[in-house]
Structures are given as structure tokens and as C-alpha cells.
Predict the 3D structure of the following.
Amino acid sequence: MSTVLVLNGPNLGRLGSREPDVYGSANLDDLRALLRASAREGVVIDLRQTDDEAELIHWLYEAVDERMPVILNPAAFTHYSYALRDAAALVTKAGLPLIEVHISNPHARETFRHTSVVSAIATGVIAGLGFNSYRLALDFVTQP
Ligand code: DQA
């Protein structure tokens, strides 16, 4: 049994009703169900969301301590949280994969979204594919 942490940052708890033209009409429960349905046998999906930077950072510590791969949608923290970046770096420095994912393509949106302070320390980045960004990340981190 291996667990993958799927961590979601601020405002993603509002998926489903938040800017459906950008993020679609499915919510986090739908995402959890999709990932559980597409996970390889023996893979446990632990999907969480918080609006709290400190909580997200502590979950990244947990990933290091429990040696869990991470799929991270840092949401708006992507663009400015050096604290989150430093915590995410602990994961990849520990030799664990951390994939930065985005539902939308931030590069096709406002200029402030073009910068990610997380990408440089991530194992990889997948953006713009809706929930498929997470699904492809899951495939990568659980490949045999
Ligand atoms: C997002 C993109 C971010 O710019 C934005 O702040 C989000 C969601 C995405 O998944 O497309 O909250 O990370």
C-alpha cells in the first residue's frame, strides 16, 4: 500500500462554483473520485485542501516524514509564497517526487500568474489540462 498526497491550496475548496468558465463545474469530491478510480491497485489517494499556508507547509513536512509522493496545486500561493516553495523543496531534496499541477494554464492568463516560485524546485509541472493535470501526475508518481 502506498499513499499519494494530493494537496490543494487556497480557494480550490470552491471548485464547482468558482469561475466555472476557467476551472469547470466539477468539485474536489469529483476530483477525489476520479483519482481513486484511475489509481493503480494498492495506491491510496489522500486528497486535502486548505486556505491556510501554514497547514499546507505542515502537510509537506508530513510527506517528507512519511515518505509520500506529492501532487501539489499551490493555487495562488504558486505566485508568491517562498515559504511554501522552501517546504516543497524539502520534499524533492528528500528524493520524493513533487509534481506542481494547475487546472488552468497560468501562462495564458494574467501576467502575475506567469511566475511560479515553486516550479524550479518541483520534479515537474503539468498545467492547463483540467483534472487531467492531476491524473497524469498520479500516473507519473505511481509508475512501477
Ligand atoms: C490555479 C492557477 C492559479 O493561478 C490560481 O490562483 C488558482 C488555481 C489552477 O489550478 O489553475 O487558484 O492553480
Summary: Residues 11, 73, 75-76, 78, 102-104, 106, 113 surround DQA (CB under 6 Å). The mean pLDDT is 97.
